[in-house]
Predict the 3D structure of the following.
Amino acid sequence: MSKAFIRFSWITLIFILLIFVAGSVVRTTGSGMGCPDWPKCFDCWVPPTSADQLPENYRETYGEYRKKKVEKFSKLLIAMGMEDAAAQILNDPELTKEEPFNARKTWTEYANRLVGFVAGNLVLILLIWVIVKYRANRKLLLLAFINLILMGFEGWLGSIVVATNLVPWIITVHMLAGLVIVAIQIKIIRIARDKKFSLKLKPVFKYLFWFSLILTFVQIVLGSQVRQEIDFMVKETVDRANWISNMQGDFLFHRSFSWLLLLVNLILLWLNHKWHYGIPTLKWIVALVILEFITGILFSYANMPAFSQPVHLLAATILLSIQFYSLDYFKYHRNSMIS
């Protein structure tokens, strides 16, 4: 496929990853409710800069708007057999309380939405490109179509996140769906590159690599559970300095589990050198795991500084992305050369 298509696919991936950064900044700064409606912000495509630009009863208006949205979403949950989750949302009095206008939070959330808007349009353009030039590749066409559908789902789920006033488990589903989008986009890039290698990897190396990839995914899920605990503490107005001391088992398990992830990847790096595979991405993988350690240490011993949280999430997302991309090296073709 053309270099232009491959380059555009990479650019699309970068903007998808930027959604994780923007979302993490929004969450860290507590700006998730900076815009009470969706997709507009205070019913504007360009949000206001001061409360003077809003009607006096805006908090009651958007509180009612959220109540209707929550009721509709609860009906969907009940239809899916999730009665307890629906009841929890419906019986939460905080969901209909509208926050006072804060320009900084509003524009932070608005920037997050702009990044998502750009990423969504890039995914749409990519699908159109595939339809026009590469529709004969059914697998590529299907993946590009699925990714567009998932981007639409993420947009809808984003509106639910706003409507439910940042209910933690919905945010976690939102993030995990984003990881699926990243994985599909990387698969699109791998198909577009269509590269095969002369590496004949030993089974133990392949199994260990897959184990490492699964470990990373499990760590991200555990990290989302830790983030949920923090969200509950924020709602209960627990001071940031006391977050770690109030953590339950998820945080300790997540922290201890990271040692296994580091060990496995160090073994892979050593085997890569010992068996002369020359897979360059393993160095980046180990570097990112170490970065995860550094930010994790800041969580534990520096009262979780705000800047470290987006870095931690971005590093984890890029780590998983590189691992998935590295599956390209599993392709084996006797007559091809490593490039």
Notes: The chain has two domains: 1-194, 195-339. The CA atoms of residues 198 and 335 lie 7 Å apart. Residues 195-339 form one domain. The mean pLDDT is 82.
